[in-house]
Design brief:
alpha+beta; four-stranded antiparallel beta sheet; 30% helix; 26% strand; elongated
């Protein structure tokens, strides 16, 4: 047999924890990470966008809100999104360290077409 009380409790908890049903106060937390600008944004629909800019290169990742009843700043303090931030920083650094095989020693004017 199964426990009807725990089944109902789980159903109620699932409905309470459904992030799509809440409207959040937008927040933005900015800081410097690895000589670049990190901006963590909580949107009103519960999505978290994380922007990282370094040496003119900007990349962004999006994550779902993981703990709807916890303050956004507290989530960041406890490293809830650290994996996303680490991937983002690593990706931007890879772009900065990379070189083009086509445009290595050439600076193109903005309005001229490519020459062979």
């Amino acid at each position: 047999m199964f426990d009807i009380k725990s089944l109902l409790k789980r159903g109620i908890e699932k409905e309470l924890l459904d992030v799509d049903d809440y409207i959040f106060m937008p927040e933005s937390i900015k800081m410097m990470v690895d000589n670049g600008d990190l901006n963590c944004v909580l949107n009103s629909d519960g999505r978290v966008n994380i922007f990282y800019t370094k040496h003119g290169i900007t990349d962004v990742r999006s994550a779902a809100r993981k703990h709807a009843f916890t303050a956004f700043e507290r989530e960041l303090e406890h490293g809830i999104y650290d994996d996303v931030i680490e991937d983002l920083v690593k990706e931007v650094n890879a772009i900065i360290d990379g070189e083009s095989k086509y445009f290595r020693n050439r600076v193109l004017p903005l309005s001229s077409p490519l020459e062979p």
